[in-house]
Amino acid sequence: MLHHVEINVSNLTEAREFYEAFLPDLGYELYQQWPEGVSYKMGRTYVVFVQTEEAFLPKGYHRKATGLNHLAFHADSRGHVDALTEKARERGFRILYEDRHPFAGGPDYYAVFIEAPDRMKFEIVAPE
Ligand SMILES: [Zn+2]
């Protein structure tokens, strides 16, 4: 199992607002917080979001460039994916591949892809 993943974000407040809307519903609990970062943990795995240092902000992030493309999390069921999709819509977050949702990943793959801050892709997948 993954130990942890750490992601730099251009705006920690915005990132925190986004991830706080989903990670607790996906079973992650707030783990650590400090002025420049926050982390969420489930079991032995945690995810850390850290404010990018000023000097590195201009370089930006692009999910199609080399590096992390997206993060995917387990949902409990298809209904769980649907509920979180609804929550994303209510909050004005963009659903990616809307025309193929919830089968953008294939006919047997039930998931939602949401655009997270920095235009990172955030995926929530139902069990098969
Ligand atoms: Zn994926």
From TrEMBL:
Gene3D superfamilies according to UniProt: 2,3-Dihydroxybiphenyl 1,2-Dioxygenase, domain 1
UniProt domain VOC: residue ranges: 1-127
Single GO term (MF): metal ion binding
TM segment ranges: none
Protein keywords: Metal-binding
Keyword Iron attached: no
PROSITE patterns xref list: VOC
A Pfam family this chain is assigned to: Glyoxalase
InterPro entries (alphabetical): Fosfomycin_Res_Enzymes, Glyas_Bleomycin-R_OHBP_Dase, Glyas_Fos-R_dOase_dom, VOC_core
Protein known as: Glyoxalase-like domain protein
